[in-house]
Specification:
mainly alpha
């Protein structure tokens, strides 16, 4: 069983390499953020990722458009799942309306 898993793992990373290594790149980025959470590079990367997410939300969803002039994440409301459920369409990003989307659910 161990040998089979090793072959499957090696095959996965080899195929990723052939396709340009995007998965490995993302994996390494996430690994660095987890292993060195307080390094200046990790702090800056998380700050950039959060800023990109907030820009995307305020520019492409009806629910967050009123927050377009935000100064920090503290300007955004804390919301409950019921708010999303009752305003589902307002949370859909205009950039992904025509893309293939998948319904997922979590417990709780």
């Amino acid at each position: 069983m161990y040998t089979l898993n090793r072959i499957r793992n090696s095959s996965f990373w080899f195929i990723d390499f052939l396709k340009g290594g995007n998965i490995r790149s993302h994996y390494k980025e996430i690994e660095a953020l987890i292993l060195q959470p307080n390094s200046p590079k990790s702090v800056e990367k998380r700050k950039n990722n959060l800023n990109n997410l907030l820009k995307h939300a305020t520019s492409s969803t009806e629910y967050y458009k009123p927050y377009a002039n935000y100064k920090s994440i503290n300007d955004f409301p804390v919301i409950k799942k019921t708010v999303i459920q009752s305003n589902f369409e307002a949370f859909n990003s205009e950039k992904y309306l025509k893309a293939k989307n998948y319904k997922v659910s979590t417990s709780g």
